[in-house]
Amino acid sequence: MREEAGGSGLSLPGTGEGDLLPGAHPRGVSPGSSLSGTGGDWELLAGGATVLAGAFFYPYVEGWVRHLTPGCLFRRVTGLPCLLCGMTRSLAAAAHGDFAESFRLHLLGPPLFVLLVAVTLSLAVETVLGRRLLPRPGREAGKVLFRAVMAALVAAWVLRLLVFGSEV
Fold it and tell me: Which domain holds residue 119?
């Protein structure tokens, strides 16, 4: 027998990922588990905290970032902003309370910032309490959520191009 990489479930050699031994649970999922037993929750917490910290510190390092990075390749090739162009600056503006500028830079920046703050704080509270507060979407719900996010990004991009053009 071998243990699956990154998971707590055991499977027999040569079997598929979904073929678990009796009593074993899928990766990172066990009855009544808390954050202490799931790697994915820690990754979400660390990722959320990193993005929020970056949003707060970005205005102080923006000059260095512009100097050290090539910028958006899509914009360089097409002359148009990509789906996420302006998102970093939008999150930074929201982090500093300038929501009008944040919306101007990217229509989804302020809602994403609020969602990031709420989810990151909730995950931090879950860590302290040792129990889950937020539901975790299943595979099908995750697919629907991904499609909805992509549709929102495309809609915001088209609206941005219509309202602001390529100059944001």
Answer: 39-133+151-168
Q: Do residues 84 and 153 make contact, with C-beta atoms less than 8 angstroms apart? A: yes
Residue 72 has φ and ψ, to the nearest 5°, of -80, 115
Q: Is residue 128 part of a domain?
A: yes
State pLDDT tens for residues 71-119.
888 988 998 889 999 899 999 999 999 999 999 899 999 999 999 999 9
With a CB cutoff of 8 Å and minimum separation 6, the contacts of 127 are: 35, 45
The half-sphere exposure of 158 on its side-chain side, counting CA atoms within 13 A, is 5
> pTM of the prediction?
0.70
Residue 111 CA: distances (Å) to CA of 64, 117, 151? 27, 10, 15
Q: Do residues 92 and 60 lie in contact, with contact meaning Cβ atoms separated by under 8 Å?
A: no
- Give the residue among 89, 57, 70 at the shortest CA–CA distance from 168: 89
- Whether 17 maps to a domain, the answer reads no
Compute the Cα dihedral for 6, 11, 17, 23 and give only its sign.
Answer: negative
Residue 28 pLDDT > 80? no
